[in-house]
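explain this:

___
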Amino acid sequence: MQSNMPRINVSHRALFVLGVALLLLVVAHPAFASNTSGGGLPFDDWFTKIRQSVTGPFAFTASIVGLVGAGATLIFGGDMNGFLRTLIFIVLVLCFLVAAQNTIAAITGQGAEITALSNALADRIQARLA
């Protein structure tokens, strides 16, 4: 009885290249992928400032106010055209993103303030033990 499975032809060269690529992925040390320098791109500082301003406490408060305002406008706004409704949905999504990032950081403890506090406590404990 013959099988109706299609026969796959793979060249030895393709197998060799795939094997070398897999070997390089397995052998490569994770430190090769790390970046310890500050970036060095001319626009790196701008993105850092934008990230800090979007994840700060003022942005979190503004996002909560925006959520309430956009939600109330959608619920009690009455008859709106499609463009205004689209703008309100964009504001709503942006507020959700900023609020979610700050909420997750508060829940999981991945904020900079918590890390700085834990490092300071670890330094004090280490100083007392020494």
In short: The two ends are 78 Å apart (CA to CA).
